[in-house]
Amino acid sequence: MTSGLGSEVGIIYFAYPRAFVQTSATVSKGQEDLIHELATMARGRKEPPAEGPIRLGPSASIAEVAGIEGLAAHYWYSFQTSRRAFPYFDDGEGGA
Q: What is the secondary structure of 35-92 as a DSSP string?
């Protein structure tokens, strides 16, 4: 597959077609369904409502269940409380 972006793009697409279909199906949902999807991904995790940048831990945490739950919980609470939260992962010291 030639995309002008390098062969990695084709490899990733063909290696994960199921993930691509699942992502497309999720994105095509309405806003309420997407917010419900965040709540489901948070799996009941409670995070205090916060505003602004929120460091969730090192970048390796994104591959852990707790990292995904934290990310989803912060975004879910952000929508529920009309606050602008920006959770992120960072390998630097101290965070924002």
A: HHHHHHHHTT-------EEEE-S-GGGGGSHHHHHHHHHHHHHHHHHT--EEEE---S
Q: Strand, coil or helix: what is 19?
A: helix
Could you tell me the two tokens for 60? 């390796």
Sign (positive/negative) of CA torsion 81, 69, 38, 26?
Answer: positive
Domain ranges of the chain: 7-88
Intra-chain end-to-end CA distance of the chain, in Å: 40
Q: What is the pLDDT of residues 7-63, one digit of tens each?
A: 444 444 444 555 556 666 766 777 888 888 889 999 988 887 789 999 999 999 988
Please state, in angstroms and rounded to a whole number, the distance separating the CA atoms of residues 43 and 39: 7
pTM exceeds 0.70, yes or no: no
Overall size of the chain counted in residues: 96
